[in-house]
Amino acid sequence: MRDHKIFQSMEKFVQTPYVQDLIERALAYVRAGFPVHFRGPAGTGKTTLAMYLAQQIGRQVVLIHGNDDFSPTDLVGGLQGYKMSKIVDNFIHSVLKTEEQLNLRWQDACITEAVRNGYTLIYDEFTRSKPEANNVLLSILGEKVLEMPIVRKGERYLQVHPHFTAIFTSNPEEYAGVYKTQDALRDRMITIDLNHFDEETEIAITVAKSGMPVEKAERVVRIVRSFREKGKYEFTPTVRASIAIAKVIHLQENLDAGDPFFKQVFIDILTSETCGTVTIGKTNGNAKGSTARVVEQLFDRYYS
Ligand SMILES: Nc1ncnc2c1ncn2[C@@H]1O[C@H](COP(=O)(O)OP(=O)(O)OP(=O)(O)O)[C@@H](O)[C@H]1O
Question: Keyword Nucleotide-binding: yes or no (predicted)?
Fold first, then answer.
């Protein structure tokens, strides 16, 4: 993805002491030449921090998202250039000329491009890619060389550019569609563990992303946080739930907390599949209903 698109999302980047502490630690590791890995559950700000860090580093950015289908070729590069053309003669119908050209040329893929030019690589959710695909990173991060595939004639080893930096993110709570990080790879990066934001940061992000005034956003965030702390949900509601509730309510001008829709927004968003459903204790048919009752109680407590 190109830089200006990546950095557009940084315009409302919030810096509280919690966020600043993370940035300072990460920048210290990067300056000492280490790859940084933000590890944490969904919605804890991993990707946003990675992008902000990349912006601070000030080099061109290559952003990739881990993918089960990735092969080493997708990351390092391969030979490309097959061309086939068909010429049909409109006057002599029996004439059909087919021309095939095999003109293979090496094409760098994203990691090679970043390593060669000293870009900053953000590898988001890297544990979604197979270890076989990610193996290429071992020598890049360890010995600072990229071993090129045999088909890349002439250039067997590429020295890693001194300005190359790698930033990784992963979610240790994901269990479907992810692979265990190889010990050797984990050993070559410095991992910073993230958890849900502190209250001050969650309020600041909610205000920045929704436009809601602070006094109102405080109450929204407190309900979401109390709900989060209440129990073991299958998916814990994240800061995205606070942002979504605040956005919807803020857009409804003059909506009073006594209006049934006001409460319904909390129930819909906090019980929805996207922001944190549904299993308190054992899953059963009433799970959603009981979750809704928890939200209602919290709402009544904070808005009475
Ligand atoms: N420092 C910040 N300033 C402003 N907004 C932020 C900040 N950190 C996170 N956010 C917002 O919080 C939400 C979650 O952040 P982000 O997507 O970075 O989390 P994540 O851990 O990468 O989540 P996931 O694992 O689900 O992809 C996003 O809407 C993001 O814009």
Answer: yes
